[in-house]
Amino acid sequence: MSLIPGTRLLARLAALRSRFDGAGVSALLVTDPANVFYLSNFRGTAGMLLVGLDRASLIVDARYISSATALLESTAGCPGMATVEVTGSYEETLVDLVVERGADPVGFESRHVTVGRHDWLVGALAESRIELLRTTGLVEQARVVKDADELEKLRDAGLRISRVMSEALAGLRPGRQEREVAADIDRAIQAVGFEGPSFDTIVAGGPNTALPHARPGQRELEAGDLVLLDFGGVLDGYCVDLSRTASLGPPTGEAMAWHRAVCEGHAAALEVVRPGATVGEVDSAARLKIEQHGLGERFVHGTGHGLGLEVHEAPRIGKRDLSALVPEDEVVLESGMVFTIEPGVYLPSRGGVRLEDDLAVTSTGYELLTDVPRGLCVV
Ligand code: ZN
Fold first, then answer.
1. What is the pLDDT of residue 92?
2. What are the tens digits of pLDDT across the range 146-175?
């Protein structure tokens, strides 16, 4: 795995620290694994970061101390960051470190800390009169706009996953089970250099295409079927995601009509993408076009989602999300944001179509990261 140079992590830490004042904290406990990786290049099943105003510590247990120390001593290590080995439990080690540093108040990532861990920390820190404050999205706000290193990895990943799609479409034929096709796709994802799939590969044939997140099963593909393929890969930690729908043999009139509606919705959304547009405007453009084809009620999910260290991250390209702190339709696109455009229509027990590409917002519009023809692929 190729990691970004450690010196570039300094800019990420600086951007994070610039948000401390607004959040009212003097240090942040980072526990979300993707956020830990973003700031330190460290990836493990455990591990946390305590980022103070002038120093940052990577807290890991005995399973990871050697690899974490070697990482920090390498060119991928963030200058000035130090490892701290867990003694007892992660929580006890953290409290000792916070007290030693005199950090107060300490912020925690409210979407990534369990109630149990939170309650324990509040009690333990209270003994030293240190306040624990909830924060939301401090690291994610930085992650939403990709830097040059990330864009380079996502571009590379977009081209590789496009090759897998071209191969997968060429390999479709009647008599093959959905799960056989899915296994071939997973092998191809590894063969082009990905660490692995970014989510469970979807292969749906015939009526199963009406299920947006179908699991590949033993159903054999039949002549005349629509086949929906949706898969992605992880390259150096970064995720891409791609969907196409094919027809085994000549498509029916209704399949062509569904595909035309989705294709036009996809194009309409792309036309809106540029810095300054809101995610709500992008979603509405796709939705309006599909409604004009009389299929509005069959477009049952958002138009897209952000991509990066997670396969679903901000920005969400959808209708208003009332659970978000900022209503989602007010999120304004910025150059460097990376997300999918993936409208689809699903007609229960009849069939469905989805068309998904990945793009990066540029200063004047967008750059497509995936490159596969968008017409209904007839095989
Ligand atoms: Zn997707």
1. 95
2. 999 999 999 999 999 999 999 999 989 999
Domain ranges of the chain: 6-143, 148-378
CATH class of 148-378: alpha beta
pTM of the model: 0.93
Give the type of residue at 262. V
Tens of pLDDT, residue by residue over 199-230, are 999 999 999 999 998 899 999 999 999 999 99
Distance CA(243)–CA(162), nearest Å, equals 10
Spacing, Cα 281 to ligand 1 middle (Å): 19
CB contact at 8 A, 264 and 293 = yes
Please give the structure tokens belonging to residue 138: 């401090």
CA of 120 to the centre of ligand 1 (A): 37
**How many A from CA of 46 to the centre of ligand 1?**
27
Which of the following CATH numbers is that of domain 6-143: 3.40.710.10, 3.40.920.10, 3.40.350.10, 3.40.50.360?
3.40.350.10
Give the Å distance between the CA of 366 and the centre of ligand 1.
18
Give me the mean pLDDT over the 355-359 stretch.
98
Q: Which helix (H) or strand (E) holds 20?
A: helix 20-23
